[in-house]
Design brief:
The complex is a heterotetramer of chains A (287), B (286), C (271) and D (270). Chain A has eleven helices and no strands. Chain A is mainly alpha-helical. Chain A has one domain: Orthogonal Bundle (MetI-like fold), CATH 1.10.3720. In chain A, helix 3 packs antiparallel against helix 8. Chain D folds into two domains: 105 residues, 3-Layer(aba) Sandwich (D-Maltodextrin-Binding Protein, domain 2), CATH 3.40.190.10; 125 residues, D-Maltodextrin-Binding Protein, domain 2 (3-Layer(aba) Sandwich), CATH 3.40.190. In chain D, helix 2 links the parallel strand 1 and strand 2. The longest helix of chain D has 22 residues. Classes of the chains: A mainly alpha (287), B mainly alpha (286), C alpha/beta (271), D alpha/beta (270).
């Protein structure tokens, strides 16, 4: 077999590598452009502010869907944030190397890889059935909290660990208690990182389908209490695509989703950049 | 008072931390408590190697679904590994700052797109295309392509980190000996980063095995053995999501048992990637 | 005042031909100028030591010769650098070809995480030699030349990372020799090693100087005095750009420096 | 930093207020009914609920899908006040709930609109779904493989279809499966040479309904008893309904309610 000269293989390899990059861009472009081109024309004020007509006709807008999504985000984040931050504080500020800590770490690692549908099964068995919450916002939110907790803990813990140790030492040396140090020094310094974690979680609530499919019910009506069922934007896309012929509406809803996700991505990038520049400023001794 | 808050707060955060532990325990408990009796009743061997899934007739064999999940995942890996690794090398070694600034957000956005949107585009755009190749379009091939787009970012970003983490000294030593850039990548960087790359592939695999909604939308959900990429099939996850709302009694428990099998798959994959990543970190410190 | 004994050597430089010629070299990293107006001749088959305080651009200067600075996107080189009369920064110059001719040994031993054999065979293989018996011969020859054969001949297929630091550095030298370079650049090759390992490497260098042109950057003035034929003293100008203060036979630089700054440095008044 | 925390706590407070507002839905003349189950019944139930709440604005009726099996389970477990089924109760289910037939529904055999075949016998339908007939040319169509599309195990429509058409034969494993009427319709409309079965309430121009034994699938034919595949749509409650739930079921069975049933393409029970 004749060997290809190093120069030819170099050239060939680079062509293939750029090809891979190009193809990735192409995939994203195909998805985003296809959805936007087919969906954006349907998006108007009426679409956003009228409720869908019936659950299954596919006609009407997405107002109740947007409201449900917002409620679900608020309830989920409201429960998720204190638990997630608390756990992260324990792991980064208190945890010693003992069995309990190791168990917790192992749990966080493992939970992060468990697929959404398993959380769905769990939420269905515990919240929907065993706790008699039914297919409801609260059952969906609690399931999401379980799903998002590992990521929330990890991101927050990283943010806390990034706070220079000197800050804590300075605070302790001034006679502050450990908790005061955490509350007044470590947490504020880690705030942009924690905000990033919350926004990322919000994004996940918006993206999630499988676990909500089996816990949230899928009613298209306006939720009246946390015991009402509902459907989020992503679920609505699924129902529209699978249960109706309204592909135009499905595309429009998907377009709304993509626009939200792009905004969230831009926002997190901006936040993490700010976070980083805040730290470089600290390291260089500027305020 | 100050002391009291200090001491109490410690227990409060410990409690918060323990919740994650409790959740894992509760998940394991609920899935197993519901699924295990079904496995006992059906018989583990019969359940895992049975080829017919007809709950109405009391036949609960999930082998076709195991094969369906494995086939779709394997197909997606064949497509995603060269692409993802290519992108990772491009981002870590070759692309200039400007190309990187463009490519990285693209990869990030691919992560963020909800899986139903992948499913929707797959259903409307990809399935009719695949139909031209034969069959009805709802197929393992369509599922593999959709999954490829979904796991591409995982493979790309973790492999990129692994390649970046290879000590600079290796790169310089190789280049200083007159090796070309590609030779350096191929013979020095990739071997040195192989644990991290392996972990990225395993994590991508985990994501592919766990994907649910997009699979239901494009794979057709038939309960036979797929014999070609153009055949329809059903995944383990799809089986759960499709039937849980319709099931009762043993049928419902059998779906929890499907969850146990899925969970076993995932835990094996996670453990592999956990150790691979640890090894890759240890290597780069050495 | 004389603090450092310069070893008297009978063999001296084997010839007086210029191997590398540097004229009007300026090196920039972005807007920062790292080197200003360097003019220097490197004599063939001799050892040239480059000394000077930290941060005066010694390593950057060394990396000009095999164009390793190309790896830094913001780096820009001006001026003329000729290897055997041919400009190495000319448009047609092949960097890969250049690096085959100009090998480099780094500050920290950096063997690849592969076997000893694969480390030494890495270069020849990359340049297209896959003949097993030829490779075995090259590996043996290179390891003998690097005075490492006796210690490693029984563990050629063990990981190179299992060797001691000094052995690793000699392995890196063997790895360079296997490519059959004409010039070997050494960037503080002994700074991470203990005195005994250092001595072994220094002996090796003297030995290699009969065949190769060696340029060594060192912090250790005793080392420069012990091994080199010629010494170049670099210093930092006020705007932190590196400049060449003085260059000449090692004996002269250490015993009779022309410049006040050189004298201060070699007598240990600062640096 | 303190300001940021002040903002945070305001945010949290308003969240709590919101949660309370969301939960708080008391009031003497109002109440909530939850209904879940069959996706066949779902669009009808939504319309009935809309009409009922229009007359009683303080009442909320939550209508959810889930499937007939789910509807039965939810009613028994008390998760829903009313469970909806699109099939007759199984013998083992019958004793556990009180059933109310709110409408009847025909099941149409639907094909992709491009299909040239427009009539099949019940036996041919059975053979196609059992996998004994796999090509359209065996039933007078083009030489094309038949794509069989079925509902999930547990679906009421499937249960009724199996009971009335399959008569003990099993649906082939080669079939594609979807878990709602809508999903099945979308799949049939999207795949050439496909065949499936669908509630009358879902029929529209995107799919073609076949005549069975020469009888077109129309409400009239189903009502007169000529069309062979008709099943009841049920509401089930755990015990004899009272109060609000009784009001609603009575409304469904009233003249006004049954008018809506007919309007939606189902058969009234009166």
């Amino acid at each position: 077999m004749p060997r290809i000269s190093p120069k030819t293989s170099e050239r060939l390899a680079k062509i293939l590598l750029w090809g891979a990059g190009f193809l990735t861009v192409l995939i994203l472009a195909a998805i985003v452009i296809y959805v936007l081109v087919n969906g954006v024309s349907e998006i108007n004020w009426e679409f956003l502010t009228t409720p869908p007509i019936g659950g299954l006709s596919g006609e009407g807008g997405i107002s109740t869907i947007i409201v449900t999504t917002v409620y679900l985000i608020l309830i989920t984040i409201f429960i998720l944030t204190p638990v997630g931050i608390g756990a992260a504080i324990y792991l980064s500020e208190y945890a010693q190397d003992n069995i309990l800590t190791n168990f917790i770490r192992y749990a966080v690692e493992t939970l992060a890889g468990v697929p959404s549908i398993i959380y769905g099964l769990f939420g269905y068995a515990l919240f929907v059935s065993a706790l008699y919450l039914g297919h409801s916002l609260i059952a969906g939110a609690l399931t999401l909290v379980c799903l998002l907790l590992p990521t929330m803990i990890r991101t927050t813990e990283e943010a806390l660990r990034a706070v220079p140790q000197e800050y804590r030492e300075a605070s302790l040396a001034l006679g502050a208690t450990r908790w005061q140090t955490i509350w007044h020094v470590a947490l504020p310094a880690a705030l942009p990182g924690i905000a990033t974690a919350i926004i990322l979680s919000t994004g996940r609530v918006i993206e999630e389908t499988a676990c909500l499919y089996v816990t949230l019910g899928g009613s298209a009506a306006m939720p009246r209490s946390i015991l009402s069922g509902g459907r989020t934007l992503a679920l609505h896309v699924y129902y529209l695509a699978m249960d109706t012929m309204a592909f135009d509406k499905a595309m429009a809803t998907a377009a709304v989703l993509i626009i939200i996700i792009v905004i969230i991505n831009l926002f997190t990038n901006w936040l993490s950049q700010r976070f980083r520049s805040a730290y470089t400023a600290m390291e260089e001794g500027r305020p | 008072m100050r002391r009291f808050i200090d001491r109490a707060s410690r227990y409060v955060v410990l409690l918060a931390a323990s919740i994650s532990f409790l959740i894992l325990f509760a998940i394991a408990f609920f899935i197993i408590a519901r699924g295990l009796p079904a496995i006992q009743e059906i018989g583990l061997v019969e359940f895992v190697t049975g080829t017919v899934w007809r709950p109405g007739q009391g036949q609960y064999g999930i082998l076709p679904m195991i094969v369906g999940s494995v086939a779709a995942t394997f197909g997606s890996l064949i497509l995603a590994i060269p692409m993802g690794l290519g992108c990772a090398i491009l981002l870590a070694e070759i692309a200039g700052r400007r190309a990187r600034r463009f490519l990285r957000p693209v990869v990030e956005l691919l992560v963020g797109i909800p899986s139903v949107v992948y499913g929707l585009v797959g259903m409307v755009l990809l399935v009719p295309l695949v139909r031209n190749l034969g069959g009805n379009g709802y197929s393992v091939l369509a599922a593999s392509i959709v999954l490829m787009a979904m796991i591409l970012p995982t493979i790309t970003s973790i492999s990129e980190d692994a390649i970046r983490a290879v000590p600079r000294a290796y790169r310089e030593a190789s280049l200083a000996m007159g090796a070309t850039q590609w030779q350096t990548i191929r013979h020095v960087l990739l071997p040195a980063a192989r644990s991290g790359i392996g972990a990225s592939i395993v994590l991508g695999m985990g994501r592919a095995v766990g994907e649910t909604m997009a699979m239901i939308m494009v794979i057709g959900n038939s309960i036979k053995f797929p014999t070609s990429p153009l055949d329809s099939a059903r995944t383990l996850t799809g089986n759960i999501a499709l039937e849980i709302n319709y099931a009762s009694g043993l049928h419902e428990d059998a779906l929890f048992a499907t969850g146990i099998i899925l969970l076993v798959f995932i835990i094996i994959l996670n453990t592999i990637s956990f150790f691979a990543l640890r090894r890759s970190r240890a290597q780069n410190i050495a | 005042m004389k603090l450092i004994e310069v070893t008297n050597r009978d063999n001296g430089p084997a010839s007086n031909a210029t191997k590398i010629k540097v004229r009007g070299l300026n090196l920039y990293y972005g807007v920062f100028q790292a080197l200003r107006d360097i003019n220097l001749d490197i004599i063939e088959k001799s050892i040239t030591a480059i000394i000077g305080p930290s941060g005066c651009g010694k390593s950057s200067f060394l990396r000009v010769f095999n164009r390793m600075n190309d790896l830094i996107p913001s780096a820009k080189t001006e001026g003329m650098i000729e290897l055997d009369g041919e400009s190495i920064y000319a448009r047609g110059c092949d960097v890969v070809e250049l690096r085959k001719r100009v090998g480099m040994v780094f500050q920290k031993p950096n063997p690849f995480p592969m076997s000893v054999f694969d480390n030494v065979a890495f270069g020849p293989r990359r340049h297209g030699n896959h003949n097993k018996s030829e490779l075995e011969e090259i590996v043996e020859r290179s390891l003998i030349r690097a005075a490492l054969w006796d210690e490693t001949k029984d563990k050629l297929h063990q990981s190179a990372l299992s060797l001691s630091g000094g052995q690793q550095q000699r392995l890196c030298i063997a790895r360079v020799l296997a490519v059959q370079p004409e010039v070997i650049l050494m960037d503080e090759p002994c700074s991470a090693l203990d005195p005994i390992a250092t001595m072994k490497i220094e002996d090796l260098m003297r030995n290699l100087a009969q065949e190769y042109t060696i340029v060594i950057v060192t912090h250790n003035m005793q080392q420069a005095a012990r091994v080199s034929d010629r010494t170049a003293f670099f210093f930092m100008s006020e705007d932190r750009a590196g400049i060449l203060v003085e260059e000449g036979p090692t004996t002269e630089i250490f015993t009779n420096p022309k410049d006040k700054r050189t004298e201060d440095y070699v007598t240990g008044r600062f640096g | 930093m303190r300001k940021v925390f002040a903002k945070w706590s305001t945010g949290i407070l308003s969240l709590v207020a919101l949660a309370i507002a969301l939960t708080g839905c008391g009031g003497a003349l109002s109440g909530t009914i939850t209904e879940s189950g069959s996706t066949t019944v779902q669009p009808l139930a939504e319309k009935l609920a809309a009409a009922f709440t229009e007359e009683n604005p303080d009442v909320e009726i939550i209508v959810q899908g889930g499937g007939s099996g789910q509807g039965f389970k939810d009613a028994v477990d008390g998760i829903s006040d009313i469970g909806a089924l699109s099939r007759e109760l199984k013998t083992e289910e019958a004793g556990q709930v009180v059933k109310h037939v709110i409408a009847r529904d025909g099941i149409a055999i639907v094909v992709h609109p491009s299909t040239t075949v427009s009539n099949l016998t019940k036996e041919q339908v059975r053979d196609i779904f059992a996998g004994n007939i796999t090509n359209w040319n065996e039933v007078g169509g083009p030489n094309q493989e038949i794509v069989v599309i079925s509902r999930e195990e547990g679906s009421g429509t499937r249960g009724a279809f199996e009971e009335m058409v399959m008569e003990g034969d099993l649906i082939t494993t080669e079939a594609l499966f979807y878990n709602s009427n809508g999903a099945l319709k979308t799949a049939v409309a999207g795949a050439p040479y496909s065949i499936g079965f669908l509630s009358f309430g879902y029929l529209d121009s995107s799919v073609k309904a076949l005549s069975i034994n020469g009888t077109p699938a129309t409400v009239e034919n189903a009502k007169s008893g000529v069309y062979p595949i008709v099943r009841p749509l049920l509401f089930v409650t755990k015990s004899e309904p009272e109060g609000l739930v009784k009001e609603f079921i009575d409304f469904c069975l009233s003249e006004e309610g049954q008018a809506i049933v007919e309007e939606e393409g189902y058969l009234s029970v009166t």
